[in-house]
Amino acid sequence: MKTKVLTLLLLLVAMMVQAADYPYLTFETTDGAKTSVSVTSLSISIADGKLTVGGQTFDLSSLSKMYFSTASETTDISVVKNSQLVIDDDAEIYDLQGRKVSKDQMRHGIYVVKTKNGTFKVNMK
After folding, report:
1. In the chain, what percentage of residues exceed pLDDT 90?
2. Could you tell me which of 64, 44, 61 has the C-alpha nearest to residue 52?
3. Statement: residue 84 has pLDDT above 80
4. What's the Cα-to-Cα distance from 2 to each of 13, 49, 66, rounded to whole Å?
5. For residues 31 and 125, what is the distance between their CA atoms, to the nearest angstrom?
6. What are phi and psi of 54, to 5 degrees?
7. CA distance 25 to 27
């Protein structure tokens, strides 16, 4: 574990040296969500399997990649459990191919649901 953390820190320092023209450090998790953090006065810490960057905290096991970017790439899609989301008649539901589907057509798989309260990624099991 210490080797992984040291390698991650060395990689991050090497990336920072090359990232002078990139104002954001973007993190992508295994579920596809992206969060960008401004590199201005960036503080990074790693403890107990968690990476804290600025005000954001990530589980190291859920990070798939991180990179510097010229624009904020934070996604506005929230991940919720099926029981936490009420899909009303006004909701728009899309499969991962971008096709609009009805509530009755939802089977096993991942869907993007747009409601008046926000946009959510739903994993139907």
Report:
1. 6
2. 44
3. no
4. 16, 11, 19
5. 15
6. 60, -125
7. 7
